[in-house]
Amino acid sequence: MGDSIPYLADQRAELQGMPDLNLPGGTRVVWMGVSGMGWADAVHHMQLPALFRMPPKVLVVHLGGNDLVRHNLQVCFKHIEDSIEYLHRSFPASIIVWANILPRFKWRAPETENKQIDKKNGNA
To answer: How many Å apart are CA 5 and CA 16, to the nearest integer?
Structure first.
């Protein structure tokens, strides 16, 4: 689940004929990438799967980069905390993996905000 990175990875895996990444044992990969998704969207995107699908063994979450452009750190932390708590309650037997926020060559924000984002990520 995540932003444009898993969305594009899903498209590439499909094009290469490997939607499940050739994982062993009939492992199924369910891609839930939405371009522009942020942590505030995570709960919304997981509510129906939480009700109607078998819980995942592993849930990989790739989110956070879009939040750095939209919110201050306090708001980002609150969205992350609330979302991870929801995922843990919804899927107690699942392993939840949060992929690191990838640094971007160009952030979609005004130049002054780009400097602040680089500082948040330790790139300044």
So the answer is: 16
Q: To 10 degrees, what angle do helices 73-90 and 39-52 make?
A: 10
- Reference 68, options 60, 83, 80; nearest CA is 80
> Side chain identity at 14, as an amino acid letter?
E
d(CA 27, CA 41): 26
Name 114's Cβ contacts closer than 8 Å, sequence gap at least 6.
106, 107
Listed in sequence order, the residues at least 6 apart from 93 whose beta carbon sits closer than 8 Å to its beta carbon are 55
Phi, psi at 59, each rounded to 5°: -120, 110
For 16-61, the pLDDT digits (tens) are 999 999 999 889 998 888 888 888 888 888 888 777 888 889 999 9
The H-or-E segment that residue 84 falls in is: helix 73-90
Establish how many alpha carbons lie within 13 A of residue 10's alpha carbon, considering only the half-sphere containing its beta carbon: 16
Report d(CA 46, CA 32) in Å as an integer. Answer: 9
Residue 84 vs residues 23, 77, 79, 113, 123: alpha-carbon distances, Å:
26, 11, 8, 26, 26
| Domain boundary assignment for the chain | 38-120
